[in-house]
Amino acid sequence: MKKWGMLLAMAALAVITFSASEARAQVMFGPQLTLVEFEHLGIGVRGDYALGDMLDLEEGWFQHTKVSADLTYVFQDSDFTTFHFNVNGLVPFEIDADFVPYAGAGLNHVRQSVEGASGSFSGLNLLGGVTFGLAEIPAFAQIQYSTSGLGFLTVSFGVLFGG
Asked: Which of 64, 85, 83 has the alpha carbon at shortest distance from 2?
């Protein structure tokens, strides 16, 4: 029950934090599914911010660059709780408006707890992905390597709303 309460709190935080109506920049947010090391499934929320809009850039290299943040709860053993938090810079390579690959780098923080004991560790991310239309809804697929702990690989898929 505690895990479902945390997931509900994450969803509420995402709606409050990523409210596009008050933001001046283009903001997109939505749910994501993450596979950690091809063993554990995670569910989370992601928000993308258009850096060019935030800085009023109309031309140049940073015009389409985005800042992306996500929070993911990873399903593991019943006594084990893991959260991943990532903040990344994404640089798109606009080849086609319907299929846009991107590369990025950023920071990762992992918080784990088991039977009352907890710990956390942080590291760097290196990632690549693609945005595409999924039945007229913007979607993304991404692979990311994080150096946190002993290092791990994640594969994520999700949809984005707003902006």
From this structure: 83
**Full-prediction pTM beyond 0.85?**
no
Pairing assessment for the beta strands 117-134 and 137-146 based on DSSP bridges: antiparallel
Q: Report the alpha-carbon distance of residue 158 to residue 58 in Å, rounded.
A: 28
Question: What is the full per-residue pLDDT of the chain (163 aa) written as tens digits?
Answer: 455 555 555 555 554 444 434 444 589 999 999 999 999 999 999 999 987 766 766 776 667 889 999 999 999 877 888 999 999 999 998 777 789 999 999 999 999 998 889 999 999 999 999 999 888 899 999 999 999 988 999 999 999 998 6
Structural domain boundaries enclosing 108: 2-162
CA 154 to chain centre: 11
**Count of beta carbons in the 10 Å neighbourhood of residue 106:** 18
Domains in the chain: how many in total?
Answer: 1
Residue 61 tokens read as: 């290299």
**Domain of 144: which CATH number?**
2.40.160.20
Alpha carbon of residue 75 to chain centroid: 17
Alpha-carbon separation of residue 72 from 28, 108, 122, 136 (angstroms): 17, 11, 15, 25
